[in-house]
Amino acid sequence: MRRTLLAQTESFPIAGAFTISRGAKTTAEVVTCAIGASGLFGRGECVPYARYGESVAGVLDAIEAMRGAIEDGMGREDLARAMPAGAARNALDCALWDLEAKLSGVPTWQVIDTAAPQKLVTAYTLSLGEPEAMQRQAAEHAWRPLLKVKVGTPDDAARIRAVRAGAPESAIILDANEGWTPENLAHHFALCAEARIALVEQPLPAGGDSALRDHARPIPVCADESVHRTQDVAALADRYDAVNIKLDKTGGLTEALALRQAARDHGLKIMVGCMVGTSLGMAPAVLLAQGADFVDLDGPLLLARDREPGLHYEGSNVYPPEATLWG
Fold it and tell me: Any idea which residues carry the catalytic annotation?
């Protein structure tokens, strides 16, 4: 069956600005793929991430390099062998999943052999800022059961305490974005225990996280930048308690499902996260996140506008995608 492949860039304004320890952004730049056959199109979205050496232009070039193979009928398993993990493969992989669902009439959740997907409680992300501003952010969203808070400075003590004061009852995930050091790790871990933090993401730089193996961890620690593929899991199991699975890291839902199983086999907790993107990028992750210990799929909530139709959010709940969106 001959196919067609389309790819384009789109820009979605962020509501305000989104700030982490590496900098701030005011727009979400995404790349969208559409793979068509028999008059139907499957779609996938990715977010190129500079931290991993990606750019919009580079991702478009990588997708274009696969045009002949995709249009000739390449499947998801061959795609995984032909391309490295990353944003470009994610857009193509998810578009193939969506196309398969539309051609067969069988929803993706049935193909991956899971129970009918249910609504999930997602974290809501608070940007990095001065402690007073972060306390105000936390207080504004204190009604949410789960907050994710960006930190990652040499001394986050005031920020951690401020956020807990602003949201005394919410469960809190701290995302240090590789910003702590072996020298201040014990200091920050003690503060996390004091503030009843539920999880800390990637406190040390990827490739420099061996110190976690020798530190007592009073709260669970989650790998993010340190884990991309299934093969990464075995080497991390001695220093992390959880892994954050993002489709833009794994290169799509196909690899993400395998990574999830590998993490479970090693006794690690599962977090399913996202870059800042639209509902199209979140939709396959909602299926992946069924049964996860932590869900962070609030990307569309951080945007000034989303796709139509998009995912349905109600408070902190996100509902499974309708077929008109994806899968």
Answer: 150, 246
